[in-house]
């Protein structure tokens, strides 16, 4: 019975942790782009994103990550033989990378708060896709275990990466064109002397 409790709350932890890891880098995108805004919008937006990032990381992401790890340890104690399985070694390597990503997010938060982060909104869009790829790999490993469909998974992940890259590039092009159009639409100031003045 303990196995099922551990598994249930392990899944709850994973869902909440990944929800945070999907959303926090998206806030980084908006935070970085807020620096492009004129004052007072820049200050208002950056302060708001700072609060949102901190709360998301502290109240949702970190507790969910701790729950995920604690329940995983519980699962392993009920089935220690699973640690001898090759699929579990790969899964744990992926989880270690995701734990690293989690802590990199905290460092980025601090840099954004101090206005020392050099990453652009475009770079954060790429950064945002990292957990998605590893989420898919971890789920496939958990489902297929030692029957992992290497060929199918490789094609799926390659297609995902290509699709993400295309979407990011198309969005960057759209933003650039929108900026060019709005710059062209702005009325030009003409310093003409009013008729009849001396």
List the helices and strands and how they pair.
Blueprint: H1 2-34, H2 41-78, H3 86-113, H4 121-144, H5 150-185
Helix pairs in contact: 1-2, 1-3, 1-4, 2-3, 3-4, 4-5
SSE order, as H and E?
A: HHHHH
Gyration radius, in Å = 23 Å
User: Number of helical runs?
Assistant: 5
Low-confidence stretches: none
Question: Percent of residues in beta strands?
Answer: under 5%
Write a structural description.
It contains 5 helices and no strands. The chain is flat and about 70 Å long. The relative contact order is 0.11. It has one domain. The chain has 198 residues and is mostly helical. It has helices at 2-34, 41-78, 86-113, 121-144, 150-185. The mean pLDDT is 90. The longest helix is centred in the N-terminal third of the chain and has 38 residues, at 41-78.
List keywords for this structure.
80% helix; mainly alpha; 5 helices
Short structural summary:
With 198 residues, this protein is an all-alpha fold. The protein is 80% helix and 0% strand.
